[in-house]
Amino acid sequence: MQSFISLMGQYPTVFITLAFVFAAVIGSFINVVIFRLPVMMKRGWQQECEQFLEEYQPAAYQALQQQKLLQPLDKFPERFNLVVPNSTCPKCKTAIKPWHNLPLVGWLLLGGKCAACKQPISPRYPLFELLNAVLVAVLAWHFGPTMQFALAAVLTFALVAMSGIDLDEMLLPDQLTLPFMWLGIIASMWGSFTTLESSVIGAIAGYLSLWSVFWLFKLLTGKEGMGYGDFKLMALFGAWLGWQMLPLIILLSSAVGAVVGILLMVFKGNGRNYPIPFGPYIAIAGWVALCWGNDIVNWYLSTL
Fold first, then answer.
1. What is the DSSP string of 84-134?
2. How does the protein associate with the membrane (predicted)?
3. Contact 253/265 with Cβ under 8 angstroms?
4. Are residues 296 and 153 in the same domain?
5. Is 123 exposed, middle or buried (0-12, 13-18, 19+ CB in 10 A)?
């Protein structure tokens, strides 16, 4: 392993290329996570509701059973997770052949259409694969063949998945935010991006920063301005990068969110009350801070 790392250090172009290809392959799986994890979560919530009714409202539960309403709310098979069933065309349900599922290449070979029914395949699939590949290639260029690169790549995979889910569902799953927050704290034990002390304080401060904004906004307006998943995502970045990076992440995410919000109002006619997910903007800001946070902070301090 050490010899391989040394070899990659001697040939950075090869390392960046390998990182790009590997990340594109992982990007194909991330598309699966973005699509399937919310379905799995909704099924879990439905099962919890049914268990609650069965225990505390047996009459209502029996009535629902008699009316055959206790069925999955989606159209997918009973056994449905990140591995099974195999991927199929959403229109004609034809199984997708392995070579048609190749990252980036498969969509291009098919001309963006299903091989069986010729219905268009959304370009979002290759776009997410390309996004994942480009981001990890940048990490390979920035960090080189180091443990920091490996950890940053794993975090990037999670951030792309979380952003995709938030864009689709206005939801940041605990199944992703919480494990990766803990991974950031564990990584800090070896000083990967920050110290353990800064990591723990960062996780606490990251959560409380947006939690405080949430409750202040709610007290003033009576409305909820963001979801609890945003608090946890900010705690995640506090754990990975330390509390010192939180002001930069909040500033950058707010700036990106404001720009996107204005563009949506201008070009799509969305009103001021139109909800937009904030998670992707936090993810963008946190990823930028992961790579160049110290440089940005040092540049700002030098201008004072």
1. SS--B-TTT-PBPPGGGGSTTHHHHHTTTB-TTT-PBPPTHHHHHHHHHHH
2. Multi-pass membrane protein
3. no
4. yes
5. exposed
* Both structure tokens of 257: 């969110």
Predicted confidence at residue 209, as pLDDT, reads: 94
pTM assigned to the model: 0.92
Of the three residues 109, 132, 161, the one that is the final residue of a domain is: 109
pLDDT of residue 296: 93
Domains in the chain: how many in total?
2
How far apart are the C-alpha atoms of 209 and 206, rounded to whole Å? 5
Give the CA dihedral 172, 178, 180, 181, nearest 10 degrees: 110
Ranges of residues in the chain with a pLDDT under 50 are none
Residue 5, C-beta contacts closer than 8 angstroms, at least 6 positions apart: 145
Q: How far apart are CA 231 and CA 246, in angstroms?
A: 12
Expressed as residue numbers, the domain containing 19 is: 2-109
Which among 202, 131, 114 has a CA at the least distance from the CA of 167? 131
